[in-house]
Design a protein that fits this description.
5 helices; 184 residues; 33% strand; 6 strands; alpha+beta; 6-stranded antiparallel beta sheet; Chorismate lyase
Length: 184
């Protein structure tokens, strides 16, 4: 795809900058992901279950609607008593990502980023520090991740870990190059 050493270095720099933006944003990450991959993103819930009286765990992936490219792998620990009831109901229906559900309901939250960076795929953990098998294929690159708490009041309502596909930007560049080849 990228032939010259300069182009390869420029691509790596661009990818690093954009992934860094994902790690520090405290807004709707899904919006940024949709811009980066240039397509609508849909949620696929892998598992959702009650783990304690008022705690639920939800594991999901965000996928490009047209490409099928897995953009992120997410694990949320939901504290039901600290989440608005209408959001909890929407999440229980598994129809939308959490951010999109909040937006459609007109809900606001405060997000506090607790941790972020890059790690080996094999070192991915859930909110209970148990190993997670990330659904990213064809990559051994370090995986960017962000761990944050989402507040709807004084206590965290959702503890979230988001792992992003390390080749997001490369995927987008390949789409653009293939589009240009089709137009030639």
């Amino acid at each position: 795809m990228i032939d010259s050493p300069f182009d390869k270095e420029a691509c790596q720099l661009l990818q690093g900058l954009l992934l860094d933006l994902l790690l520090v944003t405290d807004g709707r990450t899904t919006d940024l992901l949709e811009v980066l991959v240039n397509e609508k993103i849909v949620v696929e819930v892998i598992q959702q279950e009650k783990v304690k009286e008022t705690y639920y765990i939800r594991e999901s992936v965000l996928i490009g609607e047209k490409s099928g490219f897995i953009v992120s792998h997410n694990i949320a620990l939901v504290h039901a008593e600290h989440v608005p009831a209408e959001l909890f109901e929407s999440m229980a229906n598994r129809q939308e990502g959490i951010g999109k559900a909040m937006n459609s309901l007109g809900l606001r939250s405060f997000r506090k980023v607790e941790d972020g960076g890059f790690l080996n795929k094999a070192d991915a953990r859930d909110v209970f520090q148990k190993p997670v098998s990330l659904r990213f294929r064809d990559t051994e690159d370090k995986v960017p991740y962000k761990r944050y708490n989402m507040y709807f009041g004084s206590e965290p309502g959702i503890e979230m870990i988001e792992y992003y596909h390390p080749n997001l930007i490369e995927h987008r560049l390949e789409q653009e190059i293939n589009k240009e080849k089709l137009n030639d």
